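Ticket #4471: structure output looks truncated?

Reporter: J.K.
Steps to reproduce: submitted the chain below (199 residues) through the standard prediction queue, then opened the result file.
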Amino acid sequence: MNYGYIRVSTDKQTVENQRHEINCFCQQQGLSIDGWIEETISGTKGVDKRKLGRLLRKVQAGDLIICAELSRLGRNLFMIMQILSICMGKECRVWTVKDGYRLGDDIQSKVLAFAFGLSAEIERNLISARTRQALARMRDEGVVLGRPAGSLNKKYRLDRQEKKIYRMLEQGIGKREIARQCKVSPKTLYRWLRVKGTM
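Returned output as attached by the reporter:
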């Protein structure tokens, strides 16, 4: 199956230019489009939230996706590489009109697939390292990480079971058992009791 993929970011843009470019390209290559996928959505949106995501789940080995240019697939290199990597895994070809890009089953595509996978791994590691560095810097600056401690005026999930909790405490039932019956962790119960001044 040959699919024509068209994406515009806003309603003010038209899909007709991209459709024309793809149709002209197909005439030159002796191809025909079996199905069109058109969407008006930002390229920064995750693939799963786009029609493109449904197409990627549907394509099979030997299928061809044609789009006007690589930037129609996504707004950043990392996203484009992810999409092309999915296509490589499913042995689906991707061709672009303006860029002259060809993703297929040749050695060049296999080298690109390796580069995509390596780049994605490096990017994930860099993001993880940046996150750890940012957290360490915030701790050094005295920033308290995690959820802020609540005030006495704050509503807590256990407030609705307050009478039940106090009744069980009076009966001498252990805090772990009370937490189990209230369907919370013992830590949550201890924290709530501290806020209420019971511990």
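Triage note (M.O.): checked the attachment and the full token line is present. The chain has seven helices and five strands.
Status: closed, working as intended.
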